Amino acid sequence: MSNSTICSLVPKDASSDAGVAGAGVLLSFIITAALSVLLSATIILSELRRNSEAKIYRKILLSFSDQQILTGIGIQTVGLVKMDSIVPYHFFIIWMLSMLSTATHGAALLALVNDFRRDWVLRWLRQFLMFINLVLSCTYGVLVAMNVTKDLQPTLPISCVWKIPARKAPSYLGISIVGTIAVMAGSCIVFALGVWFLHSRRERWNKIIQVAGLAVLTAIGVGAAIRVILLSQAFGSPSVSLRDTNEKDWSFGQLLPLLLLLLPLMSVIELIRGEMRVPAPVMEGEYIGEEKNQARLSFEPNPFWGSRSNLVAK
Any stretches that span the bilayer, and where are they (predicted)? Predict the structure, then answer.
């Protein structure tokens, strides 16, 4: 069926998509985000009290963060590839899942910032993945805003926002546009502050930034999770009529994302048994050299540009 035909024929209902909005998929994102925020808070608190290196917590958090950011990029990419078949309902859910992904890797960055600073490969890889996630999230935001502006029929594919004329503006247009712009601006601010924090050479305000940043990211994650729960067929009331209830059914495809949450536990077992080693974190204010006139926290610059230097406490 051609694109013009797809946008001219308005179906009575839409197909469900358990791969996007299934109960297991949604729960895996929500649980991962919740555990990551909790682990981040535990690590930051342990650093404030200086009573534990929290190696196991750090390893689990890093695993959750890597898993979530890659999954978030993957599901957003699939959504864009399927623009000619995916309806705005599923498209919006993917956007909210990307917000959960942002909250997860943002919280991990705040808690593990010293680990990323002392390894330029991890630092630049993290920045690259954050940038890809930001670009995809902003692309989704633009399409969601266009969908609201044109009041697209809920059973039409999201790609039709480029092809059909706008209908009468809905009464909630202003609030929706402001909310969409606010979410996009928030994503950009989180990315910019995250990159700045990774490269910051100052220690004075680190703890304040970590605590305040974690509070903001927690609010973002809670807001996205509530929207997903209320809007999805699996847990709430969808905004479009769906042909079946596949998104509520528990199949192997829904159990698999939840089973993958157990993978970090394997690393924990290896850590406990001594089969895997994780370098001890460098705490703020802790000297890494024998002489106290050396810098307190190592910062490994990119070898392709920049000079080797240490982070000097300000």
Answer: 20-48, 60-81, 87-112, 124-146, 172-199, 211-230, 250-269
